[in-house]
Structures are given as C-alpha cells and as structure tokens.
Amino acid sequence: MSLPPGFLDELRTRLSLGQVVGRKVAWDMKKSNQSKGDFWAPCPFHQEKSASFHVDDRKGFYYCFGCHAKGDAISFVRETENVDFIEAVKILAGEAGMAMPERDPQAQKKADRRGELVEVMEQAVQWFRMQLRTNAASTARDYLAGRGLDDQAQARWELGFAPDDRAALTRALKGKGIPDEMIVAAGLAARPESGGASYDRFRGRIIFPIRDARGRAIALGGRAMDPNARAKYLNSPETELFDKGRNLYNLGPAREAAGKGEPLVVAEGYMDVIALSEAGLRAAVAPLGTAVTESQLQMMWRVHPEPVIALDGDAAGLRAARRVIDLALPLIGAGQGLRFALMPEGLDPDDLIRAKGACAMREVVAQAQPMVQLLWRRETEGHDFDSPERRAALDKRLRDATAQIREPDLRGHYEAELKRLKWELFNPRRSNGPTRISRGKKFGFSKSNEEHLPPSLSARNSLLVVGGAVEDQMREHVILATLIATPQVLPEFEAALERMECLDPANAALAHGILACHHETDLRGALEARLGEEALETLFSQRHVAISRASTHAGNLEQARMCIAEELAKLDARRGHARELAEAVEDLSGLSDEGLTWRLSRAAEALDKAGRGDGEDTTEYEYGTNGAPMRRDERSEFDALLGTIAFGKAGPKGN
User: What is the mean pLDDT of residues 427-446?
Assistant: First the structure.
C-alpha cells in the first residue's frame, strides 16, 4: 500500500514519541528532563539495569547507547509489536486520530474480493469444527486423543473434520447463500476438467486451518484418515488468498511469542507445531508442504534474528537442512542467521515430546548448532581425506560455499571458523590422523579440547633419540611472535602454520588462535581476548624472542618473511631427518650393541648440526626422503650412518 505525500510527516507531528515509548518502559526520572523532551530508561530491546536508552521527544528519535537500537515511532512499534510497516502505521494512526488513506478503486475492489473470500474460509472453518463433534468423526477424535490433544487443545487449534462425502461442504456453504464460484475461488472445491459439478477438495481428513499473520483464515491443511490415501497431507491450492511459499503455519501467534523472548522454532508439519506450542515452545511455525523458500526465510527473520530449524533426525531431515543452507548462505548477515536443532534419529518434535516430555525438546532447541557447523558436516561427513587431492577438494568446496556470503565481515568469520575446524580435522590427537569422517560425528570446539594437541608419536620418538625439544620450541616462539608482530605476512605462511606440529601445547594454542583470528584488524588484541594477556606476555618475554629483530620490529615485511621462512626451513629439516632416524630406531626392534649405539650418536650429531645450520651454505642443499633440506655433505654423512644402522640390525651376510 502506498501512502500519499505528507501523511507520515503529519502522523509524526501529531504523535509524542515519549508517550509511544512510555507505554513500554519505565523512565529514569532522575536522569530525564521532561520539560526539554529528554527521556532516559533501561532499553526495551536488551537486558540492562542502567538507563542507556535515550528518547529525544522534540526530534522524534530514540537511540540506545548499549545495543545501538535507533529509530522513530514507527520503527519502535514495528520492533516492540512485531508487525510490518503498514500495520505499525495503522496502530499509530489510530492513536493519533488519523484515518488511513483510501486506496484507489481497483485496489479497493481487489481488497473487497479478498475480504469476501476470507469470510467464505471462516464459514468453512466453523463448519469443519462442528463436523469433528459428529459420530462420523469418532476415528479422527480418537487419533487426536492418541496424539495427546484433548478437547481444549482441539478447540485452541480450531481443528475440524471433513466427512468422506464428495460435496458435503459445498452443499453446506451453498445453503448459506455462498455461490459455487466463490467456493472454488477459495480453494475449497474444484471443478473436473471434463466439466460437471464441483467437488470438495477435502474428504475424510482432519482439518488444520491456516491463518495469515493478521489471523485471517486463508487456506486449509488436511490429514488423511485412510492409510491408503494418495497423499497423507493435503494443502489448499494457491488462490487469491493463499501463496504457500509466502506463508507459515501459526505465524501470528508465533510472532507474538517471539516478541516476548521465546526462540522461534521452525518444524516440518502441523502436528509438530501444535506439539511444540502445547509443550510451551509457543513461537513455532512450519512451511506449508514445500521446502523453505526465500520469502519464508525473510518472514522468519522479521520475527526473530536467529530462527532454530528443527528437522527430523533422519536422512530426509538432513537433506532438508542442507537445502536450507544453500538457500540461506547468500541471505545471511550480521545478526541474521540460522541455527539447527537435529532431532534424535527417527524422531520428529512431536515424537520426542510424547516420548520424553517437553524438557527433552527444550534441551534439543537449546543445543541447536550454528549453520557453519552444519555446513562443515555436509562437506566432511562420509568423505576420505587421505590424499592432498581430496584435501584440496575440501578446500574448494568450502571456498565455494563461503563465496556465496555477501557481507564481507560475516564471510571472514565463516572462513575463520572453517579454518579452525579444518585445523582440528588435520591435527588430531592421534599421530596418523583420520582419513575418513564417519556420519553422525559432531565437530566443534569445547574448552577442554582447546587446551590443544600433544606432539605426535613420531615427534616424541625423535626427541628421545636426539633431544631437540628446546631448540624446536625456540624456533616455534620466534615464528609465532613474528606473525603476531607483522600479521600482514600471515597469508603467505598460513598453510605452513596449519602444518606446523607444535611440541608445546601453549604454542599450539597460539598457532590455532592466529589461524582463527587472522581476519581481525587487531590480531594481538583478539589473541589476548581469546587466550589471555599472560599467554602473549610469556611469548614475548622469552630471551630469544626479545633479541629477534623480526619479532620486536613490527611492520618490516621483508625482514618478517625472511625470518619465518628460515626458521620454518630449519624446523622442517631437523624434524624431517629426525623422523628418518626414528624410523630406523623402530626397525631395530630392541637389538643394540656398543657399535650401534656409537653410530646412533653420530647420526644424532649430524641431525643436530643440520638443524642448527652450522656452516650453512644455501647453495649446497640436497633433500631427504621427506623433502626436508640438508647440506650435501650432511646428507651423505647422514645416509651413511643410517645405512650402517640398518647393517647393524641385519648383520653380515651368512650370519
């Protein structure tokens, strides 16, 4: 509906914003100055004790210094009453004594027609309700009682019954003077394609009235009593009143309940919504026989910023969740998202409530997962990640998904969270790592596993052989401190940081934090908020960090690059050759003698020398079997020593 020029200005002029807001808040009279139209109160949009919500009555605007809510009288009514723009204008116009403007004749004619159809629908709803009390509906009443709906609940939801008669409703409505054309236009009857008399669409079914947000009857849903019926549930066809992709079952009552702070729960069907509401979760809605549409998502977000999608815990439910993710990714934004409550396998909300009670359902809703977790599960469950190609394919799928998010800040947070989950996947507690993610496994971080990962078995064996833990940790300190000091180089070393196997849990926590917070403008501040100030103070107080120019001189990109690359290369070299040596030791299977012990010590010395880079000549690199760099003379000595170790195990030929 378009409003004539000047109508809204006149409405705002006639209204006192202080009076409109004053019905919802208690003014802080010590802080307010009524004579100047200056009012203060605790904010009605978030929980607080202090008065940070300010109303400037003369200018007609409000602003909260806590949650930053702002607007005028129309936006205040929209937010507090959970109504759309025109409804808010109608409410305020009534208070101001202003008549809403007349529509143009054509629009008025269309509105009159819709009003007549609504009246036909109301007549049908009342007739179906009466039929539920007849002898013919005894089976339907028994079914509803078995689903936990007594007479009072049936009345609350205006449930009815359509007799198994081809024209019972049509005869009843015609008897009240309603023409056949209006009955068909309302979607209550249909005409055969071959011609002839119309017939009732709903026969032998329990009837669920479908009302719009304003409470007007616009359609019906019917549940068949015959188990052999072609369709278990049947909805009205699309009509002048009803667009199934633009409406939600129970929207009006759910909007009111959500306005009082209840979570908005989105279920799959009528009985689920009724069961949820009867169990105390009154802000429950359902799509109407279709997958969730973009229009329905937008309607949900106008009711609640983070609806909870409660889907059946079976394969079909998970497929539905994944379709919703694809639909929602381009639409989500700051403060506008989704959560998913996955039901126990084989149960829907109605089943769970009847089996375990309302508390069990509330617990499932309270534990609803953010959409990023479902996205991660979709891209990882049932997949093998035992090769670089498969891991790269995962990277591509995740990039393609996050690329759909239009808001840059939110996209950055999604990318950071997915990198965190990927770090967890490829840096597990066991040394060899998972190659397949089983279905049903839930991924996420708790405080317990944020205390990070111990060194792998191969790393521990290497330390037992050559004792390089302290030197490795020092290199880790310098790498991490340099990245924190000059985070601009992080994109170049992100993959290496993900692979870096930190020996110290504190270093692992820092590495993980850097990866998770890489998008933050103030990386150091974000890390302090995540890990505490002490973690960074401990890192930068290390003597070897304090004397490193790359760690202490922030912003020198070239110096930072060279330092990190050098430390990573030395770390890779020492650990790579340590793994070779550890494998040789494992091959000994407990056999040893004095000569073998001496050869092991020589190999360890060569390894230690390679790690320190003594006398390093970067033009003389060879590469070990693990790809780590080592000078040619060191490589030769190392290979010879490994050969004598193997010979020491096997013994001379003929023995």
Answer: 48
**H or E element at residue 333:** none
If you count them, how many residues does the chain have? Answer: 655
Amino acid at 104: D
Mean pLDDT, rounded, for 441-463: 39
By percentage, how much of the chain surpasses pLDDT 70?
Answer: 80
- The string of DSSP codes covering 461-491 is HHHHHH--HHHHHHHHHHHHHHHHH-GGGHH
Per CATH, the homologous superfamily of domain 7-96 is: Zinc finger, CHC2-typedomain (3.90.580.10)
Write down the mean pLDDT value for the chain: 81
Residue 419 contacts residue 516 (beta carbons within 8 Å) = yes
Q: Mean pLDDT, to the nearest integer, of 261-275?
A: 93
Look up residue 217 and give its amino acid.
A
Our CA angle for 385, 387, 388, nearest 5°, is 105
State which CATH number among 3.90.980.10, 3.40.50.410, 3.40.50.10350, 3.50.50.60 fits the domain covering 112-242: 3.90.980.10
Beta bridge partners of 145: none
Question: Cα–chain-centroid distance for residue 432?
Answer: 30
Q: How far apart are CA 145 and CA 263, in angstroms?
A: 27
Taking the alpha carbons at both ends of the chain, their separation in whole angstroms is 100
Output the CA angle 28-31-35, nearest 5 degrees: 95
Residue 626 CA from chain centroid, whole number = 40
Tell me which range, 24-38, 474-488, 623-637, is most confidently predicted by mean pLDDT.
474-488
Query: Quick one: pLDDT at residue 307?
Result: 96
Tokens 């109301």 correspond to what residue?
122
DSSP state of 343: P
Q: How many helices (H) and strands (E) does the chain have?
A: 29, 17
Instruction: Give how far Cα 385 sits from Cα of 76, 84, 516, 549, Å.
Output: 52, 49, 21, 39
- Cβ contact 170:191 at 8 Å: no
Q: How far is CA 41 from CA 18, 175, 428, in A?
A: 11, 58, 51
Residue 18, CA distances (Å) to 33, 40, 93 in order: 12, 10, 16
What local confidence, expressed as pLDDT, does residue 103 receive? 65
State the average pLDDT over residues 459-487.
Answer: 72
Residue 615: is its pLDDT beyond 80? no
pTM: 0.61
- Using a 10 angstrom Cβ sphere, with 0-12 exposed, 13-18 middle and 19 or more buried, the burial of residue 279 is buried
- CA 49-55-61 angle, to 5 degrees, is 135
Q: Which amino acid is at 640?
A: A
> Is-contact 206 159, C-beta < 8 A?
yes
Residue 431: the pLDDT is 40
> Residue 432 — very low, low, confident or very high, per pLDDT cuts 50/70/90?
very low
Where exactly are the structural domains of the chain?
7-96, 112-242, 243-367, 372-444, 457-641
Under 8 Å between Cβ of 629 and 566: no
> How far is it, in rounded angstroms, from Cα 287 to Cα 236?
13
Answer whether residue 99 shows pLDDT above 60: yes
Select the more confidently predicted residue: 559 or 578.
559
Give the DSSP letter string of 491-520: HHHHHHHHH---SSHHHHHHHHHHHHTTT-
pLDDT at 270: 94
**Rounded CA separation 410/413 (Å):** 5
Question: What pLDDT does 513 receive?
Answer: 85
